[in-house]
């Protein structure tokens, strides 16, 4: 999957030396060629003399606003670099809050084009004309969309085929979908938080490990894990479960 990032800080996506997207799982996705992140400087498309991408807001007020022309031209130039149609995503605190199901949907697209705004905002006319999906990574304000774009790329990359390999399937993580019994016969699918995990030694500072995990009984272990996932979700994120 090609993922373009349009930014005025392309150096945040530098790959040598490897940074956030060059190590761990996103690094593996890149090394496997499953993901190709291409950062493009919006400034390179500014037609004005000083390659300015921002100006003062009409109506006054603090901060600067990203201008229409550089972003509009950058989007079209970058889209023309590859025939795969790009899903446009604008990272913004005003966007729809990113969830695992959005990440799954984005991971099914052939190509993503992420727009990382900076400054006070982006001229509304170019947002309306480009009609991107607007995505927020949470109810707080970052200095720009770049870190949010990296969060989205990391979350998408780990879902692409072959990236997690033998380490296990992403379906077993927090926010994965589990079949939960709702009656003697029926199960329903729910997204749940993950269960607790343990490794060697068997005893640490006087604390043991739940006996069931040492039993070798995979049926009992899976049942225990599901119970733990449900209990955790109920205690920590009741909003993820139906009421009652
Ligand atoms: N840009 C600034 N804050 C952001 C947020 N919370 N999510 C996405 N993009 C942003």
Descriptive notes:
By secondary structure, this protein is of the alpha/beta class. The chain has 2 domains: 2-157, Alpha/beta knot (3-Layer(aba) Sandwich), CATH 3.40.1280.10; 174-240, Trp Operon Repressor, Chain A (Orthogonal Bundle). It is 27% helix and 21% strand. It contains 6 helices and 10 strands, in the order E-H-E-E-E-H-E-H-E-E-H-E-H-E-E-H. Helix 2 packs parallel to helix 4. The protein starts with a strand and ends in an 8-residue tail after the last helix. It binds adenine (ADE). The site of adenine has 11 residues, from strand 5.
In brief:
The chain is an alpha/beta fold and 244 residues long.
Relevant terms:
244 residues, Alpha/beta knot, five-stranded parallel β-sheet, binds adenine
Using the 3D structure, state the CATH architecture of the largest domain.
Answer: 3-Layer(aba) Sandwich
Order of helices and strands: EHEEEHEHEEHEHEEH
Q: Which strand-content bin applies to the residues? A: 15-25%
Low-confidence stretches: none
How far apart are the termini? 41 Å
Beta strands, count: 10
Question: SSE layout and pairings?
Answer:
Layout: E1 2-7, H1 24-31, E2 36-41, E3 54-55, E4 65-66, H2 68-79, E5 87-97, H3 100-107, E6 111-116, E7 121-122, H4 124-130, E8 133-136, H5 146-157, E9 176-181, E10 187-192, H6 218-236
Parallel strand pairs: 1-2, 1-6, 4-7, 5-6, 5-8
Antiparallel strand pairs: 3-4, 9-10
Helix pairs in contact: 2-4, 3-5
The protein binds adenine.
Adenine binds next to strand 5.
């Amino acid at each position: 999957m090609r993922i373009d990032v349009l930014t005025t800080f392309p150096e945040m996506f530098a790959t040598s030396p490897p940074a956030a997207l060059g190590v761990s799982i996103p690094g593996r996705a890149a090394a496997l060629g499953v993901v190709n992140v291409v950062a493009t400087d919006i400034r390179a498309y500014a037609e004005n003399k000083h390659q300015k991408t921002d100006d003062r807001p009409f109506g006054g007020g603090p901060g600067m606003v990203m201008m229409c022309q550089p972003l509009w031209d950058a989007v079209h130039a970058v889209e023309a670099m590859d025939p795969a149609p790009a899903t446009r995503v604008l990272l913004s605190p005003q966007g729809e809050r990113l969830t695992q199901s959005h990440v799954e949907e984005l991971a099914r697209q052939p190509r993503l084009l992420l727009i990382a705004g900076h400054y006070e905002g982006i001229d509304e006319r170019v947002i309306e004309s480009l009609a991107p999906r607007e995505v927020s990574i949470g109810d707080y304000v970052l200095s720009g969309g770049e870190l949010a774009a990296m969060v989205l790329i990391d979350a998408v990359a780990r879902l692409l085929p072959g990236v997690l390999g033998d380490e296990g399937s992403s379906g077993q993580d927090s926010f994965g979908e589990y079949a939960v019994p709702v009656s003697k016969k029926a199960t329903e699918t729910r997204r749940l938080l993950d269960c607790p995990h343990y490794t060697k030694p068997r005893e640490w500072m006087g604390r043991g490990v739940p006996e069931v995990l040492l039993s070798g009984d995979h049926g009992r272990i899976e049942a225990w894990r599901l119970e733990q996932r449900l209990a955790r979700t109920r205690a920590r994120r009741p909003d993820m479960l139906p009421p009652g």
